[in-house]
From TrEMBL:
Coiled coil: none annotated. Belongs to the RNase T2 family. InterPro entries: Ribonuclease_T2_eukaryotic, RNase_T2-like, RNase_T2-like_sf. One of its GO terms (molecular function) is RNA binding. This is Uncharacterized protein. The keyword Glycoprotein does not apply. It comes from the Eukaryota. Signal peptide: none annotated. Keywords: Disulfide bond. Transmembrane segments: none annotated. GO terms for cellular component: extracellular region. One of its GO terms (biological process) is RNA catabolic process.
């Protein structure tokens, strides 16, 4: 397996996202902020079939990344088929922190199957270890806690992008990449944070390269997320979204 210096890395996305270089073909993880996802969705968000998720950053993906082309490596041919039964030991953790809030509600299995079939098979890890590694790094990063320590909360306010970046760097020792998306009323909102992790899947390091598509303006909205924002059916989504946008408009004035 190749060293990340010769071109292999990992990328993590958690609506805050994360990247991680490794000494082997590594999965990349993304962390996603559900408040931004729900506000951005045309259909609102729904309570997953397995119950309410955590009010925290989620793992969105855990990818193998090739630095030489700055793209994820996908669907390696030597991977084992996905087996949902192998996730029973981490069922509670994965339900809370690798959630799918799309409408209509889902049980999450298709999301995890897609992650494994796309990226996990390229990670060099067994299936359970792949998902455990992503969830453990999500917990260790504690992006929400890092921001809170610097007075940054999901409260509809505008925050300087550089202040957000420095808050994460102060806690983890490395600067993250930030991804923003369209928010309410012409504002951009914080959506993902990318971090790089060494081969031990414990040590955050400076990212050798970040995706060229990352983009945020000088200041962004940190949109709230509460489980009461979630709908139990897809048909309720449009009503939920209009109420959420009205509240956002009021708070931004």
């Amino acid at each position: 397996m190749r060293n990340w210096i010769t071109g292999r890395s990992s990328l993590v996305t958690l609506s805050f996202s994360q990247m991680m270089p490794d000494l082997r073909p590594n999965p990349s993880r993304d962390k996603q902020w559900p408040g931004a996802y729900c506000q951005d969705s045309d259909y609102g968000c729904c309570v997953p079939k397995y119950g309410y998720p955590a009010e925290d950053f989620f793992v969105e993906s855990f990818q193998t990344f090739d630095l030489s082309i700055n793209k994820p490596i996908v669907r390696c041919s030597n991977g084992k088929p996905f087996d949902a039964n192998k996730l029973e030991k981490i069922e509670n953790n994965i339900n809370h922190y690798w959630s799918n809030l799309k409408c209509p509600p889902t049980d999450g299995v298709n999301t995890w199957r897609s992650a494994w079939n796309s990226y996990g098979v390229c990670s060099g890890l067994e299936q359970l270890d792949y998902f455990k590694a992503a969830l453990n790094m999500r917990k260790q990063a504690d992006i929400l806690g890092a921001l809170a320590e610097q007075g940054i909360s999901p409260d509809y306010k505008l925050y300087a992008t550089e202040r957000i970046r420095r808050a994460v760097e102060q806690k983890l020792g490395v600067a993250p990449g930030l991804q923003c998306r369209d928010g309410p009323f012409g504002k951009k909102q914080l959506y993902q944070v990318y971090l790089c992790v060494d081969t031990d899947a414990k040590t955050f390091i400076k990212c050798p390269k970040l995706p060229a598509t990352l983009s945020c303006p000088a200041s962004v909205v940190f949109h709230p997320f509460y489980t009461w924002m979630l709908n139990s059916t897809a048909t309720a989504a449009s009503g939920f979204e209009s109420k959420l946008l009205l509240l956002t408009e009021t708070m931004l004035k």
